[in-house]
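=== Structural record ===
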Amino acid sequence: MSTLKPEISSVDHIQGTDSASITIVEFGDYQCPYCGDAYPIMKEIEETFGHQIRFVFRHFPLANAHEFAFPAAIAAEAAGLQSKFWEMHDALYENQYRLDGELFNELAETIGLDLERFQQDSASEEIKRKIEDDFDSGVRSGVNGTPSFYINGTKFDGGATDLYQMLKESAE
């Protein structure tokens, strides 16, 4: 049974409260079609279970297969430095079908970022290191594809639909 390494900390992107009974960690790739399919289901899980869920996203860009996965992760992290990680996260998945190098500045503008700062931050080594640390965390935790989910620290074998079903059944 694979467990999450390292534990969730202040460097993670977290939605929800610490008092939530269920913590879901997703290792995702913004260009992965399966992650794109999982995105609306994860949104539905958050809406359905609300305060019971704490959601954490870690980057796992499969750069060999997806040329824009790492640049998209950089865009999300750069947005995060302006407190808009989740807005960029959502915008990237909602525009996944047209992911390319031109899209990032457009989305940055759409979500109201300071564009000059966004571009400077996108070039920072600190951001690249954060993404690489997330990726290493995935490798250490036993991630072998995206999306991969961990429920309260333990790897969940199944996709977002299976996860939603399991949560619904346990809530009944």
